[in-house]
From TrEMBL:
<dbReference type="Pfam" id="PF13377">
    <property type="entry name" value="Peripla_BP_3"/>
</dbReference>
<protein>
    <submittedName>
        <fullName>DNA-binding LacI/PurR family transcriptional regulator</fullName>
    </submittedName>
</protein>
<feature type="domain" description="HTH lacI-type">
    <location>
        <begin position="1"/>
        <end position="36"/>
    </location>
</feature>
<keyword id="KW-0805">Transcription regulation</keyword>
<dbReference type="GO" id="GO:0000976">
    <property type="term" value="F:transcription cis-regulatory region binding"/>
</dbReference>
<dbReference type="InterPro" id="IPR046335">
    <property type="entry name" value="LacI/GalR-like_sensor"/>
</dbReference>
<keyword id="KW-0238">DNA-binding</keyword>
<dbReference type="InterPro" id="IPR000843">
    <property type="entry name" value="HTH_LacI"/>
</dbReference>
<dbReference type="InterPro" id="IPR010982">
    <property type="entry name" value="Lambda_DNA-bd_dom_sf"/>
</dbReference>
<dbReference type="GO" id="GO:0003700">
    <property type="term" value="F:DNA-binding transcription factor activity"/>
</dbReference>
<keyword id="KW-0804">Transcription</keyword>
<dbReference type="InterPro" id="IPR028082">
    <property type="entry name" value="Peripla_BP_I"/>
</dbReference>
Length: 312
């Protein structure tokens, strides 16, 4: 009755629940695993430590996933890996040692070998991040990164800026390319004052405060500098703010990810709905594990929001 309450009458269910409460009954997970062949255990990777700013983004996702897993009857196991090859080797070890039910993958990218490895072995999984440049053969949840920088650029246009620069990551990153696309599309369609060449307003660099400062300094010392900057991360945006202060120039700045540091320093930033994304990942994985999932892999594209503060 506990596992299939729909097969008995409502009055019977009520009496059984009363008895469960009176006796203090708790489900024996080990016994259930023996009967169902399921561990109710899923695994997700902890990202390598970075600058302590944007690394907190996936930490918040992990908290959300853990919160969502418990009500669904699942537990979350964490593991580390330095790169794709090491992560795939870890899959093999974990599946052998712990009889995992499935995985939640993060940080998807072009040519991602992890998804094909799991799919070839019929291991259930979902990804937080779309299958960039690959056929959509598995369930995924993502945030609309282009919509985030579109909102940031639109805000700056609405406040009078026309030369709006972009500090992003090198081409080839699915997330980074999408964030650049939102800025470029919005600025290009901004009307007769739209810049003739957007490449003159964009700089690509690796993520970090110091690299963000160097990139912003490059843009702000050009003959016709931008008056505002949209950045692909809060780390880059913090560097841009530092560069503007060093040069003694006013420059509106918008970051991405709405980290705790952005909140502390008053940085306008794009916020990702991480708790909602984690909950949706858990829902999709539970559907696959408990019911086989839909015939067509499910996907969910969530909308970010712009959090306005002092910098824009």
């Amino acid at each position: 009755m506990i596992n299939t309450p729909d097969i008995v009458r409502a009055e019977t269910r009520a009496r059984v629940r009363e008895a469960i409460t009176a006796l203090g009954y708790r489900v024996n997970r080990a016994a259930r695993q023996m009967r169902t062949g399921r561990s109710r255990l899923i695994a997700v990777r902890i990202e390598p430590a970075r600058d302590g700013i944007n690394g907190s983004v996936l930490d918040r996702f992990l908290h959300g996933l853990t919160d969502a897993a418990a009500p669904a009857g699942y537990r979350v196991m964490l593991y580390t890996a330095a790169d794709d090859a090491e992560e795939i080797a870890t899959y093999d070890d974990l599946l052998t040692a712990h009889d995992l039910d499935g995985f939640v993958l993060t940080s998807t990218h072009h040519g991602d070998p992890r998804t094909s490895w799991l799919a070839a072995r019929d291991v259930p999984f979902v990804t937080f991040g779309r299958p960039w440049g690959a056929p959509e053969t598995h369930a995924w949840v993502d945030v609309d990164n282009a919509a985030g920088t579109e909102a940031a650029t639109s805000r700056l246009l609405a406040t009078g800026h026309r030369r709006i620069g972009f500090v992003g990551w090198p081409a080839g990153s699915g997330v980074g390319d999408a964030r650049r696309e939102g800025w470029a599309r919005t600025l290009a369609s901004s009307g007769p004052d739209a810049p003739a060449c957007l490449d003159d307003l964009a700089v690509a660099t690796v993520d970090g405060i110091d690299t963000g400062a160097a990139a912003a300094r490059d843009l702000l010392t050009r003959p016709v500098p931008p008056t505002a900057l949209v950045c692909a991360s809060d780390s880059l945006a913090l560097g841009a703010l530092a560069a503007a202060r060093e040069l003694g120039r006013y420059c509106a700045v918008v970051g991405f990810d709405d980290t705790a540091v952005a909140q502390a320093v008053g940085l306008t930033s794009v916020s990702q709905p991480l708790a909602a994304a984690a909950a949706r990942c858990m829902d999709l994985l539970a559907e696959i594990l408990d019911g086989g999932g839909p015939a067509t892999p499910a996907r969910a594209l969530l909308q970010p929001s712009l959090v306005l503060r002092q910098t824009a």
